[in-house]
Q: What sequence folds into this?
């Protein structure tokens, strides 16, 4: 939706700063270990692992780090035992927030997540309280400078995309998880550079925010993203770009 900023779009830009701080390395290393443990170390048979390996390469993570993380997951190397935990809660105006974590200490993580919610007027909820508001989707973002909507639409229709739409300075292609890799490969085969790609939790509807509520929701999700144990944050807020500019100034 042009003229609006969703968390999925904002966090794409935030990742650049995270990479500079080395935080993205830590998150991907944990993700690689978990993905290999759950689905095996073969990237050709493990879509989740392959997506994370691609992300690791995009931020120039050394191959040695990638290989070591995968081997820890498959048990070939000893290492810290990580667990995945999903937290659900609410921000101001009933905004739904979902938090995926990978942790070696569930008590510590739960306390940190709860604090990040409550600090700016949010609340941590029970399991399942907002999960029903999201669907698992493949999401690919391509810079509008790389191609045009008609080209992406043609590729998307041929390979099962559900939607191709303009999203700020990008085109956003969404699909069922099973169609994610074929669409991604087709875009790459067409010589089009992909800005980001992931299996994501996409909101079914959005809540538009302005003013103090928008500011507090952004503070909640940013604080959550900055926690070492947090892998992904998903939310259903929608903030007009002119409001975002004021908040950023």
A:
């Amino acid at each position: 939706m042009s003229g609006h900023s969703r968390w999925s779009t904002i966090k794409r830009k935030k990742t650049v700063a995270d990479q500079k701080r080395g935080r993205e390395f830590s998150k991907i290393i944990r993700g690689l270990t978990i993905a290999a443990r759950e689905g095996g170390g073969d990237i050709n048979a493990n879509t989740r692992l392959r997506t994370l390996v691609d992300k690791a390469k995009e931020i120039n993570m050394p191959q040695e780090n990638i290989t070591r993380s995968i081997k820890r997951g498959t048990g070939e190397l000893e290492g810290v035992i990580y667990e995945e935990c999903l937290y659900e809660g609410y921000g101001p105006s009933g905004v739904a927030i979902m938090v995926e974590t990978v942790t070696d200490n569930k008590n510590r993580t739960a306390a940190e997540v709860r604090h990040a919610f409550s600090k700016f007027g949010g609340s941590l909820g029970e399991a399942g309280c907002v999960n029903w508001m999201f669907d698992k989707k493949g999401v690919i973002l391509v810079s509008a400078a790389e191609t045009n909507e008609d080209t992406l639409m043609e590729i998307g229709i041929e390979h099962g995309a559900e939607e191709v739409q303009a999203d700020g300075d990008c085109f956003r292609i969404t699909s069922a998880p099973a169609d994610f890799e074929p669409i991604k490969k087709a875009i790459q085969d067409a010589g089009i550079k992909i800005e980001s790609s992931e299996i994501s939790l996409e909101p079914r509807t959005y809540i538009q925010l302005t003013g103090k509520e928008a500011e507090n929701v952004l503070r909640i999700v940013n604080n959550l993203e900055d926690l070492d144990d947090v892998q992904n944050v998903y939310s259903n807020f929608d903030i007009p770009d002119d409001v975002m500019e004021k908040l950023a100034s």
In short: The CA atoms of residues 120 and 216 lie 6 Å apart.
